Amino acid sequence: MQEFYTKVFISGMCLLLLSLLLGYACVSRTYLYLPLVPAGQSELIWRAVPRTDVEDGGESSVTINDEQFSLSFDFTVVKKAQYPYAEVALEFTDAAGAPTWVDLTAYDSLSFNVKCSPANTMLMSVLTFEEGVTVADDLVTYRAPSAFFSCNQAWSRIAVDLTHLETPQWWFDLHKLDLAQQAYRLNRVPRIAFGSTFQTPTDTQVSVLLNNITLCGRDWRYLYFLAVFLLLAWGGYGFWLLKQYTRSLVASLADKQQRDRPLIAYQQLSVEPLRDKEKTAILNFMATRYADAELDLDAMVEAITISRAKINDILKAELGYTFTSYLNKLRLTEAARLLAEKPEANVGEIANSVGYKNVSYFNKLFKEEYGCTPKTFKSVCKKT
Predict the structure, then answer these.
(1) Is 7:244 a contact under the CB 8 Å cutoff?
(2) Biggest distance spanned by C-alpha atoms of the chain
(3) Burial class (CB in 10 A: 0-12, 13-18, 19+), 68
(4) Full-model pTM
(5) Smallest Cα–Cα separation from 49: which of 83, 32, 26, 73?
């Protein structure tokens, strides 16, 4: 069985290591993080684009201070246009610098650090393409689902759920659409904007600083794959382990029975090498009386008139056992034979037939000798 345990340990450790490595890889790929700012760390190409109400007759203004290491800008909202506003957008571009769309469906949130002065309530909006409405070069035709956030002179960490943004009512009114059509898709996004709201102080310069702008998402396919792999791999390992254990146990028990064959009581005992009447008397007596539950060393001394010390000395010298250990060896060897050859007999009957009145004690000794209970030994023998 030692070879079996070594094989189990090595294969189990290999499977565990593979599971840990695959688990780490799958978990890493499940949690998606795409930084936008700083720009040098982003896989997406973008540029900061200011936009105000000037084209609607307003006088609001925006000045971009930094768009590489952070998104820093100052803006002033002037209450002159009907709907005054000012914003800075991260406009996505291709390698040539031309405006393009990006697919953000793999991401469900946008997080960033922000501080502003004076304190303000601002708007984050994501422009999305709307089939049948959007015209590529007309920003007003894009749906603009948005979320509000507050900022002040202290850094705040903001996380916006991109799947539950609200589309402003004016967009529905402008395009004569039903307000109930709140669903939108993030498969074609030209820009993400940060700007003023109707609660922004007017005629006041507002300074805004954003950094660590990051898109976050979850791709659950990798965890599903990991779960299926672990189920199949460890389930298969358990099935293999059971088969290997049964096979190894059968081989181990067969080998043990073969090695113990000279001790089996029902076979003729060879005494030629002993050349001694005392040795012959001891071995013959034990071979014929081992099944007697009342047999003990005193009874043997009385029956063959050999001293206790000499009996133990002879058994120790010839077989390496004391009287008690040799007696148990004879009984357990015969019990193993009976378990293998008489499946109809129960464990209690076999225990009694080989000299054990206490079945629990018999079970304990048998397990110490054969590494399994008599019941397990019996079921294994049935399969062979």
Answers:
(1) yes
(2) 129
(3) exposed
(4) 0.61
(5) 73
